[in-house]
Specification:
The longest helix is centred in the N-terminal third of the chain and has 21 residues. The chain is elongated, with a radius of gyration of 20 Å. It has one domain. The chain starts with a helix and ends with a helix. The chain has 51 residues and is an all-alpha fold.
């Protein structure tokens, strides 16, 4: 039974840790994304999609 209690304790701490991250209003400023490849390739297109 001890491993089950340890697992439940770790799971409870993980859930409690995640709830504070959900409540934050982040980012408050624009985020600059630097793509170190030439324009028009697949990587810049992927960066445009994730904006």
């Amino acid at each position: 039974m001890k491993p089950v209690k340890r697992f439940l304790a770790i799971a409870a701490l993980a859930v409690l840790g995640c709830t504070s991250a959900i409540a934050q209003d982040w980012p408050t400023k624009p985020v600059t994304m630097v793509v170190p490849f030439a324009a028009g390739g697949p990587y810049p297109k992927a960066a445009e999609v994730t904006r």
